[in-house]
Each structure stands twice: as structure tokens, then as C-alpha cells.
Amino acid sequence: MASFSVGGAHSSLRTPSLFPTPPTIRMLKHHPVLNCTPFFTTPSLFSPKNLSLRSSNHRAGIACMSTTTSPVGKDDQKLISGQPNEKVVQVSSWIDYLPKEIQPFAKLARVDKPIGTWFLIFPFAWSATLAAASGSIPDFRNLAVFACAAPFFRGAACTINDFFDRDFDKMVERTKERPMASGAVTPFQGLCFFAFQLLLSHGIFLQLTNYSWIIEAAFIFLSCTYPLMKRLTYWVQAYLGLTINWGAILGWYAVKGSLQPSIVLPLFLSGCFWTILYDTIYAHQDKEDDVKVGIKSTALKFGESTKEWITGFAIASIGTLALTAYNAALGRPFYVFLAAASGQLAWQIRTVNLSSAADCNRKYVYVFRFKVFGIGFVSNKWFGVLILSGILLGRVFS
């Protein structure tokens, strides 16, 4: 599943007089990483006494210019730092400390990227909390059971996704080092690992207060067929929404032993709209590669109108959440948190840079020894927390 995912050397840019022409200055000014404008706005830098510096830095200047017009390569990474004696810090993962034999499988299950697990847990937690009696807190046993099962189920979903996409992943810069794409894990090993994770999650699901094999089977079917949808429809993010928010149905059933459509259906739809929003942002980082290999996504379908589309989905998500709260007779505290969550979505949509992979992927980016946070994908965790907090307090004070 998509949602379920610079080293360098000392900089050679010790002198700011690398670019004698204003167009280059404008390119760097708007570059999302370099942004070297302060070094090029001093007129004295272009005086005759500095002309001798231009020749010695010509090659560095050309290299720096290339980062403004093409993806960052190995040679370009050395020049991302814009100050003397500064380095870009390589981000390492705790997976690197595991035994070598285990590392490929840990990466296959995305255990170092827990945001996808959170996206599975939130719909279940919302629903199970809604199902609690008025004035009461939710049954933490059910929440704990699902929280334990979610990492294994999410890992299984990622594994089957990589199995189907292994040939496509080889052609995409962001995914070419995934275990099955790189050959670190064979397809047969991947399928065995997929089955192993499903068995673990199934054993944990059985501990729910009310278990339904039909709901779990539908959950598994959606997860296994999701990777195929990106070959068939541009609305693959909508199918992902159906898959990742299935916990909204399971959560209510785990508590009540039955379903109440007036509450469960709008809650499920709100999660689907939310998923389309954040995964469309996420898909923008791969849109150029997706066109080359023939993968479809809402990022390609919406194109330059993406912000208008995801604004509509944000409104739909907030609206259906409000309908859910009304039908469930939640107290006023919920609507305070819903307003805060609405502001978070509005901020996210307004500020996200859809042309920046780092911004869409919401990664840590180490530049000039400072942590630079993108805007978009991981910030949705806080949306989920706000809604869960609102439902909890709304139920307690209903």
C-alpha cells in the first residue's frame, strides 16, 4: 500500500559568486531545498574583483544549477549544503541494527514506517469509541486487540502489494530498492511471509469481544485486490479508502455484535474521503514515474486541479463526521475538536507543495543540520488524533 512509505560531503560552495545571471538567481530562490537567494542578492558579489572566483567555481556552479532542473542524483547530493563545512546528514533506520537475514522482511512489512498502521487503527478506534455507552469510556480490551493485530495486517497488505508491484517498483526511483524489487526477497518468500502475517493477525482478531469472519474475509479481499486497481482505474485511492477504513465496520461490530448503518456508514465514508485526500497528496511524489510505467492514480487524474478536488473531499469528510456525531448523539466537545481537525486539513491543503516529493511524503529532511519537515502525509496522524479525542470526550459528556 502506498500509505501503508541525503547523504553528502562538505560543500564546495564557499564563495557565493557562482551565477552571474539573474535567471539562475530566480531559479534558486524558488528551489524547495537550496533556496540560496541570500547568497546572490549582494551587488558586490558581481564586481570585477570577484571575477577571478567565477572560473574556479564554474564546475560547482553547473552542478548546483542541475539540481534545480532535475531529480537529485548522487553527484548532486554533495552540493545540497549551501554553507561551508556543512553536511547533509544521512537518515538511518533502526532496521539497520537488526540481523542481516531479518532486515529485508522488516522493510517489506514497513515496520520502520508506522504511519500506515495508524491509518488502520484510527477508523477502528473511532468506531469502537462511538459504540461505547453514553457517559462511558470505550472498552480498552478491544482497542488493545486491534492495535496488536494492525501492524501484522498492515505488514501483510504491504507484502502482497510489493509482490504484485515488484516489476513496476524496479522502474520507480522511490521504490526500486524495496526488497522484492531489488531481489533481496524472492516472490515465494514474500508469499510465505504474507501468509505468516495474516495468520498472526487472524489469531489476534479472534480475541475481539465479537468476532466476524465475514468482516475479516472482506478486509483480506480488499487488501489483496487493492494493488491490482492501480492498473485498472485512476480512482485507486478510493479503493484504498474502502480497504483501510474497513476497521470502522469491524470496530462497531466488535463492541455491539451488530451494525447500526446510520452511524457506521457515514463514519466509514468520512474515513474514505479522508484517505482519498491524503493518499492523493502522497501519490504526487510518483506521478512522473507512474506515467512512464502505466500506473494510475487520482494524482494523475486531478492534475493541476488537485487542490480543488481534495478540498471537496475534505469538506465531505468533515460533513459526514458531523452527521455521524449527530446520529450518535455525541456531546458538544466533539464539535470543538472537529473544528480543530477542519483547520488542520485546511492548513495541510493550503500549504502542501505538490511539486515537492519531500513535502508530499512528509519525511525528515536534513539540510544544514536542521530538521526540515514537509507538509502532508504524516501530518494526517494529528487529524486522526483530533477526531478520536473529540469522539472520546463527546461520548463521555453526551
UniProtKB/TrEMBL annotation:
Listed A to Z, the keywords are: Isoprene biosynthesis, Membrane, Mitochondrion, Mitochondrion inner membrane, Transferase, Transmembrane, Transmembrane helix, Ubiquinone biosynthesis
Q: Where in the cell is it found?
A: Membrane; Mitochondrion inner membrane
Q: Which sequence ranges are marked TM in the entry?
A: 115-137, 143-164, 185-205, 211-229, 236-255, 261-278, 309-328, 372-393
Q: What is its EC number?
A: 2.5.1.39
Q: Name one Pfam family in it.
A: UbiA
Pathway as given in its UniProt record = Cofactor biosynthesis; ubiquinone biosynthesis
Q: What is this protein called?
A: 4-hydroxybenzoate polyprenyltransferase, mitochondrial
What organism is this sequence from? Answer: Gossypium gossypioides (Mexican cotton)
